[in-house]
Amino acid sequence: MAWTNTEMADEVILFFKPNTSVNLGIGMPTAVAERIPDELNIMIHSENGVLGVSGRPSKNTVSATLINAGKETIAIKNGASYFDSSMSFGMIRGGHIDYCVLGGMEVDAARNLANWMVPGKKVTGMGGAMDLVNGSKQVIIMMTHFSKDGVAKLLARCQLPFTGLDVVDIVVTELGVFKPNGSKFKILKLANGVLMSDLKIESTLLE
């Protein structure tokens, strides 16, 4: 009934236009890199200074010095380029990244995102998330639909500290694809067999 991570990645890719750039966040969004069709000619950006990531390396091409922002080894495509963090964040803050795909802890109907800390728990830092949600042309959140406590992560108002305000364009979970519009979540698509009641979201928040 629910989509796998691979199927979620495929749903995310449907929003990409050919010959564009995308930054993929740590964790679940990294699955997108391995699913992008070659014909889309997408240039994947990593904020540690790479443009042209193309998924995982083979055993013969892996290099400990070629990594993404999550310190995972990566492969690169023809035409890839390397640069320092200053230029990388200049690309983000200058509005030159078409899409970013990030994980999320909570998204609310007002298009706000919380994805970087839980008060009282260890915090490793926000990384580039704050820059990405404000600098990218379109922000897609790819996350599990429920928290570990079984509570839906699509809310009327985020309870956790914000990463960005009025920034989220699309949310993809294992149960469906949603678009927050300021007051509600518009259901764009549900996974096969999923009912609105399975979402465990107040009906007043859905359209």
Overview of this protein structure:
The protein has 207 residues and is α/β, with parallel strands linked by helices. It has one domain (5-205): Glutaconate Coenzyme A-transferase (3-Layer(aba) Sandwich). The chain contains three helices and twelve strands. It has a nine-stranded mixed sheet with strand order 4-3-2-1-5-8-10-11-12, sandwiched between helices. Strands 7-6-9 form a three-stranded mixed sheet, with no helix packed on it. β11 (176-180) and β12 (185-190) form a beta hairpin. The chain is globular.
Layout of secondary structure:
Layout: H1 5-13, E1 21-24, E2 43-46, E3 50-53, E4 76-82, H2 85-93, E5 99-102, E6 106-108, E7 113-114, H3 129-135, E8 138-142, E9 154-155, E10 170-172, E11 176-180, E12 185-190
Parallel strand pairs: 1-2, 1-5, 5-8, 6-9, 8-10
Antiparallel strand pairs: 2-3, 3-4, 6-7, 10-11, 11-12
Give a quick precis of the structure.
By secondary structure, the chain is α/β, with parallel strands linked by helices.
State the distance separating the first and last CA atoms: 21 Å
Q: Please tell me what the overall shape is.
A: globular
**Beta-strand share of residues:** 15-25%
Q: Could you spell the SSE succession in H and E letters?
A: HEEEEHEEEHEEEEE
Uncertain runs are none
Name the CATH superfamily classification.
Glutaconate Coenzyme A-transferase
The structure class reads: alpha/beta
How many domain regions? 1
Rounded mean pLDDT is 94
CATH-derived architecture: 3-Layer(aba) Sandwich
Strand order of the largest sheet: 4-3-2-1-5-8-10-11-12
What's the level 1 CATH class?
Alpha Beta
Q: Quaternary arrangement of the chains shown?
A: single chain
Largest sheet: 9 strands, mixed
Number of strands: 12
Helix percent band: 10-25%
User: How large is the count of helical segments?
Assistant: 3
Radius of gyration: 17 Å
CATH topology: Glutaconate Coenzyme A-transferase
